[in-house]
Design a protein that fits this description.
By secondary structure, the protein is an alpha+beta fold. It is built from 5 helices and 6 strands; from the N terminus they run αββββαβαβαα. It has a 6-stranded antiparallel beta sheet with strand order 1-2-3-4-6-5. 25% of the residues are buried.
Length: 118
């Protein structure tokens, strides 16, 4: 996985857009809510949302740490070595991150996304 593959994967999810936020973060968002990001100065790193159950296990793996600025509190990890996850693991984690953020959208927003899928 590299930043271009990550970008392609993230943008394949319904309702996803990309943009620059916080000055230097390339963010992938579902209806404006970020589920994955990468610092423009460090495109060899990526941050994504995880659930509470997998947060500790992922942070115990070499090449993965709690994301800066509230990663522990909000359950975001930072991958500092793209090769520490297989392509399959990347796909699974990015989809989970998307689904976690999508689940926090309003019912109306979720219905709108579901219409895009069908």
């Amino acid at each position: 996985m590299d930043i271009e593959q990550l970008r392609t994967s993230c943008l394949s999810f319904p309702g996803t857009s990309e943009g620059i936020k916080y000055g230097d973060q390339l963010c992938f968002m579902v209806l404006g809510k970020v589920f994955c990001s990468s610092n423009l100065k460090h495109l060899d790193r990526a941050n994504f949302k995880v659930d509470e159950e997998e947060f500790e296990a992922l942070c115990d793996r070499p090449g993965i740490v709690a994301a800066p600025y509230g990663g522990s509190k909000f359950k975001w990890v930072q991958v500092t070595d793209f090769d520490c996850l297989t392509d399959r693991e990347w796909a699974e984690h990015l989809r989970k991150a998307y689904d976690l953020v999508k689940a926090k959208l309003t019912k109306k927003e979720q219905a709108m996304l579901n219409e895009q899928i069908t």
